[in-house]
Write a structure and sequence with these properties.
The protein is mainly α. It has helices at about 1-20, 30-35, 40-65, 70-300, 305-315. The chain is elongated. The protein starts with a helix and ends with a helix. Mean pLDDT is about 80; it is low at about 310-315.
Amino acid sequence: MSRISDTRLRTREAAARLVAAGRRPHELTVDLIYAEIRQGSRTTINDELKLWKDEQARNDALAAALPPAVANAMRSLWSLAIEHGEEVFTARGEELEREAADATARAASLAASQAALEGEAQALRAQLEERDARFVAAAAELARAEASREAALREAQAAAAERDAARAQADEALRAAQAAHARELEALRAEHAERETALRTQIDQAAMRLEGVQKRVMMQTEEARDAQRRAETALAKTQQRNEQLVGDVQRQAADAAEQRRLAERNEKQLASAMEEARELRRERDALVQQLAHLQGQVAARTAPLPPRTAKRSRQSP
């Protein structure tokens, strides 16, 4: 809206400049004004230009009817009034624009709030539908549970009837078993009495045998003690003989150690003699080689000269 007000104001200013430049008011056109201001729509410029031309016509008519001084004063006053009106109009327009912007912002905020509320309403509807579905499922589950409970109750009643019948049968079987057990118990008691009598007889016989065994054990114990005393005497003699043998063994061990020392010394002497023998053998081999070499030299010196050599020796004098 400020753009339109600015266009109208600039339209009036451009028209005033063109008139001041020498053009007549009725010669002004929309194209001339647009060429001057380069903004706004031609419709706005045309409307404002018509208003301006009407005002100029009224001013010119008033100026023709009044004295020049009064007409000029009225024109000045009218110009001031128009400028003031335009300023008031511009301020009011800007205020209206701010109010419109605030209203637009509030509308956008309300739209956002409405969208949020609609989202919440949709979420609540979804939750309500979900709860309804859960309620229906729970009702169905409750119906199934009720049916199951009734079936279980019927089964429990049938089981109770079967239990009563089984209990009666068990009582009858228990009484029969108790009677049979009493009979078996009497038989076992009689058998136990017989076995106890036989066992007492066996115990008496075993006691008699045990007394005989004890007597034999005591005799064997005395014999074992005598044998132990004889063994101790033999052991003392054996220990004495062992001590003598230990002394002999120690002496023999000392002799053996001496013999080992002698043997080691003899071995060392034998090793030294063998080393000397090897050294003598090496010397002998060297002497044999030297002897063979000397024999070769002697044989070479004492050998007769070849015939050809002798002939040359005779011809040489």
